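Q: Hi! First time asking for a complex rather than a single chain. Here are the components, and I think there are three in total. Is that enough to go on?
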Amino acid sequence: MAANPIHSYTLVITGAPYSTQAPQTALSFARAAIAAGHTVDRVFLYGDGVHLASSLCAPPSDETHWPTEWSTFLTDNGIPGVACIASALRRGLVNESERKRYELSASNLLKPFIIAGLGEWVEGNMASSRTLYFHAGG
Amino acid sequence: MTDIHTLHILNKTPEHPRSKACRDALRPGDALLLIESAVLALAAQSGPESDVPVYALASDIVARGLGQCAREASLVDFPAMVDLTTRAQNVISW
Amino acid sequence: MGTLMVIDQPPYGIWAGREALDMAFSLAAFDQPVSILFTGAGVNWLRTYQDTREINQKSVEKNLSAAPIFGVEAMYACARACTQYGLGPENMVDGVVLAENSSDLIRQHSHTAFAG
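A: Yes, that's all I need. Here is the structure of the assembled complex.
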């Protein structure tokens, strides 16, 4: 049997941490993909998924801090994490330049996440060999 | 090597409308992977009732106390889930 | 053959449909072939005479009318769901193709995606 080809993934997370299992399933999947020699081109946060990029989550200390876990994973592996700008601004997730533009009291975008448009998702769709979605369950 | 036409990844309970839509969409050559709340189908009396291979994420089964109910599905871990996505031509996340 | 964005959630009470529409419009803006399937409670997007002034939301009927302009290839509606929700030619927006079998439609597209 031929060796499995190397794949590239765009992962789209639409479920929020602490209200869905989506960010944790996605993280376990991403870790396994990297370990198997595949690449994760980018992680795109959409809808409620943008809450994963908040630097202001403060879960109880005996619970996993999913934004931090994701932030560390993305940084360690040099994977771009992108929060959809339309989803983010509506839900109160802003970087420094959006804070200035809308004259808001604070910014809260966790590093290394960036804020960008849906074009990032379209590009991922085109460039990656697989696009996987991690939605809210139910 | 894509020996699976479409891999259907389902994370909804059996009652969820999307679970039914997912079941309706299964065709010979496809595979079904149950994750998160979807593994509860293995505890339901009707079971996952499917003509295609059914896989289920072991960590989600164990977490829900369903280790004894999992006979109708092949249990997979995350490396095996990754492998399934590489074997499929298309992947639908329901 | 392109992406099928599926809207299976109703308008106004939940935001997922709007976000699916935005995804479809983005694909179209980048010249990627995309169609939309309304199914389940999602077919309620397609009813005419939606008047949303009292709930202070933009009418999705207006959003939808932009689909052909953006270059969305086709809008399909699950025939069974339309029957279930009392939708017919007399109370449905124009330009929607009834799909007798949504599963076949999914089969015909290389990508099928939900917004949430």
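A: The radius of gyration of chain A is 15 Å. Let me know if you'd like any chain examined more closely.
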